[in-house]
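#struct-help
A.M.: can someone run this one for me? Single chain, 340 residues.
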Amino acid sequence: MSVTYLDFERPLAALDARVAALKGGSARGPAVTRALRRLAVARRRLEREVYDSLSAWERVQLARHVDRPQTLDYIGRLCRDFFELRGDRVTADDPAIVAGIGVCHGHPLAVVGHQRGHGTAERVHRNFGMASPEGYRKALRAFRLAERLGMPVLTLVDTQGAYPGVGAEERGQAEAIARTMRAMTELRVPIVSVVIGEGGSGGALALAVADRVLMMQYACYSVISPEGCAAILHRERAPEHVARAADALKLTAGDLLHAGAVDALVAEPAGGAHRNPRRALEAVERAVVQALAELRHVAPRVLRRRRYEKFRRLGAHVETRAVVPRSPRRRSIAKPKAVR
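D.P.: on it. Structure tokens below:
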């Protein structure tokens, strides 16, 4: 299977190429074994150095990695007998959002999440995970079904934002997102949300009004993409402006945990979830099962009250007294008397 390397991973690519050459060569024996061991030690050291010094923009690139596990991969790990719901019962089906019900560790579970797609054809079919109003109305349909059947809800967030096309706006994009968010605040069942990749703008928040918001180590979550922020502030998307915007947005998992916007982080395997998907899936499974177990026996009215208070606490403001600088006094200049 081919491996996709990002720009800052090029040093690792060179070491991997040397390892592949030694393993694929005809030479065998103790010398080759010792060389492979040395390269493995060097790679682990280099990998630690690379990923410990990632910038915010490099973390965004990791969150968008094409090989990163997506919603359907997590559903395959978490649920058995998964039944996917299609269509919003109003207009059409939106493949950018996957919704359905299944059984997770012996308990029924409703799952809703963005699906970007892995290959080019799937990414185009799913509109790169950018959902239209139909997708959010399908999510709303799944939420209502879960509440009617008394089953908890799991949402998986991975989108650059809701689709901004003219057709989506004409069909009520903002209204669909607002209804979805309002419904999540009112649900009487537990909700767990996991930011598994990129969480962008209202398209991500529409699925993240949850009792527990978890975030993967190399995921990102922001009100706007770094490119969009740079385009607004600097009128261009030059790489240096995009990197500066990513840093200013404080969109990394560590920043958001410190700010209280997410409740817990899910550790990723060395090199990110895309390097070892199986371990990433297992880590998310453990975190989700634990969160659901903690919420399963909480009374519905308590869930709703805590959820309300949780999001009311987000953010902070400081009231200051505006000091208006006094303009210097102007000296009055006597008008010259008219000479007769």
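A.M.: thanks! The CA atoms of residues 85 and 100 lie 5 Å apart.
D.P.: also worth noting: The chain has 14 helices and eight strands.
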